[in-house]
UniProtKB/TrEMBL annotation:
Protein species of origin: Streptomyces edwardsiae
Name of the protein: STAS domain-containing protein
Any matching Pfam family: STAS_2
InterPro entries the UniProt entry points to: MlaB-like_STAS, STAS_dom, STAS_dom_sf
Domain STAS: 20-94
Length: 108
């Protein structure tokens, strides 16, 4: 019996505020979904866009890079607030994109 499963990522709008709640994995199999979510966020033009990631179990470096790239396309005075991301995502952002003012990480 093959026990392997295909990684998945589900995304739904937040009940309050502008943003989304993601669940699953952000990796090779789900990059297209993640990049669409980020592109939509950039286009929406909100000053603060929430990314609730408490149900995300894995983010690869390319997924963190896509977030950093999207954050770089936000206009003046805009930012992503990333709530409760996996610890590895925080380390990757701090290592490769330190001091990126358009991403605020909140552990609460």
């Amino acid at each position: 019996m093959d026990d392997r499963r295909t990684p998945s990522l589900t995304v739904r709008p937040l009940e309050s505020g502008r943003g989304v709640r993601a669940a699953g994995e952000i990796g090779l199999a789900t990059h297209t979904i993640w990049e669409r979510v980020l592109e939509q966020a950039v286009r929406e033009g909100e000053a603060v866009y929430q990314l609730e990631l408490s149900e995300v179990t894995f983010v690869d470096v390319a997924g963190a890079g896509a977030l950093a790239a999207a954050a770089g396309r936000l206009g003046e005075g805009r930012r992503f607030v990333v709530r409760r991301p996996p610890p590895a995502m925080c380390r990757v952002l701090e290592t490769f994109w330190p001091g990126l003012s358009t991403i605020e990480v909140s552990m609460s």
